[in-house]
Automatic annotation (TrEMBL):
Family: Belongs to the type-I restriction system S methylase family.
Protein known as: Restriction endonuclease subunit S
Ranges for domain Type I restriction modification DNA specificity: 4-154, 177-319
Swiss-Prot/TrEMBL keywords: DNA-binding, Endonuclease, Hydrolase, Nuclease, Restriction system
Biological process terms in GO annotation: DNA restriction-modification system
Transmembrane segments: none
Family matches, as PANTHER family: TYPE I RESTRICTION ENZYME MJAVIII SPECIFICITY SUBUNIT, TYPE-1 RESTRICTION ENZYME ECOKI SPECIFICITY PROTEIN
Entry GO MF terms: DNA binding; endonuclease activity
Length: 337
């Protein structure tokens, strides 16, 4: 199928309109106001009758795209693609084209990223027949809706797990179910990480973990399967449950549960609820000290109840895996997200 390439300025007129300040928004206004991140409020006047494609052109979200509703006000920190030639281009096709293309070569400025009108002249667009454009845009919208649906289902399953934890074990901060309390040092082992330089092997069997996730591979390991990682430096409040043996670097602690006392699933979700920032010892980069962690008080429900929780979590994780296969290529996954 043949196409003709048009410059963006041949099919529309990019324009920044007068900015309405936050103070001048009207909560009783009839018309939505579009800013850098979509609708930011309402106003008594509009400057666009038709749905219009907008490009965020100021700040960290420069390059974000929105399509306004009819009768809306498009603010000055957003570039409105006005006077769209609807005989040549479908607005939804243009949206998906620009979303795929990106604006990395268009954005300027370091302290304050921006997109200028002149810079948009770099954009050229191959256009097919309108019917074909609409078909492509419709198919992409359907795919996008399916992705959103499964992402929402994953979020719902994650919230279900948190709700299940609270229902079964109560509030861990107040221990409102009066479980026995133990120090961490009595129910788990904290394994220090080590520098990975001497063991790195691109074809290694075991992953190497930092506080933020996998950073390499090795044929040696420090921690056993079903160990929780918490950051010693950096990501101290983002625990990771790893279901295979791994090497942890010196910026990450490995928490191995003593199986007769505590389920690793219970420990993992305790860590998700716990605020490790209260043990932070640094001003710039958040840091934790092993001796402080060993003194953390942990309510311990009966192991039978913990195991029942673990069984339910396993079933939910299977559901999550099924949902993920619709979103991502199937890989060997050993991490609980």
């Amino acid at each position: 199928m043949k196409n003709k390439v048009y410059n963006l300025f041949e099919i529309c007129n990019p324009k920044q309109w007068k900015t309405i300040s936050i103070d001048n928004l009207d909560k009783n206004g009839k018309y939505p106001v579009y800013g850098a991140n979509g609708i930011i409020g309402y106003y008594s006047e509009y400057n666009h009758e038709k749905p219009t494609l907008c490009i965020t052109c100021r700040g960290a979200t420069s390059g974000e795209l929105n399509i306004s509703t009819s009768y809306s006000y498009i603010n000055g920190n957003t570039m409105a693609l006005d006077d769209l030639d609807e005989t040549k281009v479908d607005i939804n096709f243009l949206y998906y084209f620009l979303k795929k293309r990106g604006f990395k070569d268009i954005i300027s400025g370091s302290a304050q990223p921006q997109i200028t009108r002149i810079a948009l002249k770099k954009i050229n667009i191959p256009l097919y027949t309108l019917n074909f454009q609409k078909k492509v845009a419709s198919d992409l919208k359907k795919a996008e809706d399916i992705i959103t649906f499964y992402k929402n289902q994953l979020l719902n399953l994650t919230e279900l797990v948190k709700s299940l934890f609270t229902t079964m074990f109560g509030d861990i901060k107040t221990n409102d179910k009066n479980w026995e309390i133990y120090y961490w040092k009595d129910v788990l082992n904290i394994k220090n990480g080590k520098n990975q330089k001497q063991v790195e092997d691109i074809e290694g069997k075991y992953p190497i973990y930092g506080s933020g996730g996998i950073i390499g591979y090795s044929n040696a390991y420090i921690c056993n399967e079903n160990t929780i990682i918490i950051g010693r430096k950096g990501n101290i409040n983002k625990p990771i449950l790893v279901k295979e043996k791994f090497w942890n670097v010196d910026t990450a602690f490995g928490l191995e549960a003593k199986k007769d006392k505590i389920s690793y699933y219970y420990l993992y979700y305790f860590c998700l609820f716990y605020d490790f920032k209260i043990h932070n010892k640094a001003v710039t980069i958040p840091s934790l000290v092993k001796s402080d962690l060993e003194k953390i008080l942990l309510p311990i429900p009966p192991i039978e109840l913990q195991n029942k929780f673990a069984e339910r979590i396993e079933n939910i994780e299977k559901l999550k895996f099924i949902k993920k296969t619709y979103l991502f290529p199937i890989k060997n996954r050993s991490v609980v997200a």
